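Much of what follows relies on a compact textual record of a protein's fold. An example makes this concrete, so a full record is given next.
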Amino acid sequence: MTFVVTENCIKCKYTDCVEVCPVDCFHEGPNYLVIDPEECIDCTLCEPECPANAIVAEDDLKAEDAHFKELNADLSKIWPVITERQDPPADAKDWDGKPDKLKLLER
C-alpha cells in the first residue's frame, strides 16, 4: 500500500509532510506535491502532517479520487524530490477546501 496526494494539495502545496518522510518519496511540481508509490513505505507519518488533509492511504481513496494514484505515480517520475519544508504559497489558505482544482494543476 502507498499514500496518495489528492486534489486539495493543488495550489495549497503545504510541505510539512516532506520533513517527516524517512524515504524521501515526495516530489514537487509547480503547485502540487506527489508521492512516489515505489518509494513510499506506508509509514503513515506524512498523513497527519498535511494541514490540507490532502494525503490519503490508497485503500481509503474515494472512488472519485482513484485517478490520483496514477497521477502521483506518473508525476513522481518527472518531478524532482523535495526533502525540506518550504513556506506555502501566500494564498494557500484561500485554496484549501476549494473544489475542482485539478484543472489548475501545473505540470
